[in-house]
Amino acid sequence: MRQYLLHTLPGRAIIVGAAIKFVVWLVRAISGGVPAFLSVVDTVAGLAIAAGATYFAFRLIVLAKRRLLWRVRRKMILSYIFVGFVPALLIVAFFLLCGFLLFYNFSSYLVQSRLHALADRARFIAQSTALEIQRAGGRDVPVIVARRQSTQAEELPELSMAVVPADRSCAGSADVKATLSDSAMITAGPWRHIDPPRAIPGWIPCSGFSGVLAYSHRKAAETADEDTHLVVRAVGFPDASHPGYAVVVDLLVNDQVRQRLKDDTGVEVRSVSTSGVAGDAQPLSGRQGGHERDRPSLAPKGMLSNMPSLMEYRDWRSGESGILAITTALSIPDLYDRISAPEGGVPRTFGQGLLMVLFVIGALFLIIEVIAALAGFALAKSITGSVHELFRGTERVRQGDFTHKIAVRSEDQLGELAGSFNQMTASIEDLLREAAEKKRLEEELRIAHEIQMSLLPQGPLRMPGLSVTAVCVPAREVGGDYYDFLPLDDHRLGVLIADVSGKGTSAALYMAELKGLMLSLSRIHTSPRDLLIDANRIIAEHLDARSFITMTYAILDLRTRTMTYARAGHTPLIYVPGPGLEARRAKILAPDGLVLGLKIDKGETFERLLQEDTILLHDGDLFVFFTDGISEAMNARDDCFGENRLGQLAETHAHLPSDELRERVLREISAFVGDAPQHDDMTMILLKVDEVVEAVA
Prior knowledge:
Helix content is 46%, strand content 19%. The protein contains 15 helices and 21 strands. 27% of the residues are buried.
């Protein structure tokens, strides 16, 4: 711990922060306060301590995870817990929450529907009373109101009624005027909760009103604590175009109404509050002391005994809607009994049966979970034991012990894995030996590639009047393509390009043998035809019967301005005339000739078919020698680049220097081929006559 605190940045931050906070504490203790800048420094020190503590907590968690979960068995047990137990607990919690929400929302719906039913009943009482007063001509109003109130008070003891003077003009009603014989307000009932209304607010329509209001009152005269209650109020007007009065009915939601509500729905309304609920609506002011005596709770205590729900109410003065927070006590058994109660004498056997099936399914679920946990732990022990044996075996192999074997204790996939490990350790030494051999072969091929490239001309050809460039790209490390420049004297140059059938090492060996042969024959023969005839005779005696060689050999004579060439089965030669002589069109030069090395006779057929041609040289002439790896380069659709496309490319860009033209051709081939692999060696020689030097003679 000391090392981490003193030698790490987070540890130093904790130490410095603690020291600063201690100094600030001393200053506060001595002087009784600290300056503002010290308060800022103290805050920064606290942040530094928090940052350092967070860093070390993260490191501790990582270290604990590495130490505790290093063994596979612990990881698998933890995975079984997350895969098996946690989802099961989440499923149970999910269905419990769904059931709770279902009962909770249904109970809220039942409470609000009962209150709306009370409001509708109060509206019926108010409307029928107003019509009865209208039929009586506005006389005996106190008698009518008192009789109506006493009739309903048997069922609704806290029912209060009032006849309030009003002056309204109602369209669509009978064109009569309903008035009272006495314009004073008349009341009936206790009216202990609030004062009777003196007037009807203007927002109430002529059709009347019924809804839930709220009022607040002080619990006692000596305290400022207020209590909020519900009251159902209804307003009814007579059927007249100019009603002169309205009947107001208040039905207080008291203990009896709450008890009836609980008996009907299984839900008890415990308290009502407007605190913390936003809105412009305000409850009415009730009379001091309230209307209720202290009463015991109707619901048992528990998690469901204080469930908040929201309900809309109206502000009597303004008509604005507000929200009340109602605390209810929910009894799920009682609510279930109300929901599942049979009609009449129908038995409840079917519902009880479904409930029993539900409990049986839950018990089976728990049993299956326990069995799955035990099976999972046993399986984890089996798997981790095999993994541990494999770990020990790999450690022995890592130390170089290839004789170690793992005991096969089961005939399952783990047993097969142990057997495969034993087979692997038995053959791993052979694999290492094969890897060393492969490395040696790769090194030899690399050396062979360097040797073969050294057999080709090195650097550009320096000869007045000629611009020559070439490129050779083997398909493998070594290939069978070969080209060479053979200076014969100060004004003659031999140009050779050949392709040995096949690829790889055998073709490369024939290519090396061919170079030595060509160097010797080029000194003897001045005719390309004679050279190829002599070469065919020698090669046919030594070449494998399954192989052959194609070749084009040309001799450029700058003194006579001619190029004499012969083609032994090789790809054609492309010739682009220089500017100013004729239409600068690419020509395919393909004199007859058979491939080298065929053992069909003693060379008579080869000599008879071989043809030698001579062409005059002019300034700007371009000659393209190439192997079939250029013309037969294929793209992903197996389309060949082709001699025609190569000729058009040479014709279009014949004005470019040889080096630039070579790069242009290679780019075009690369763009044409795309991602397709190279299947043959590619070799190309570009020979351009820059200036025919007459002074060479």
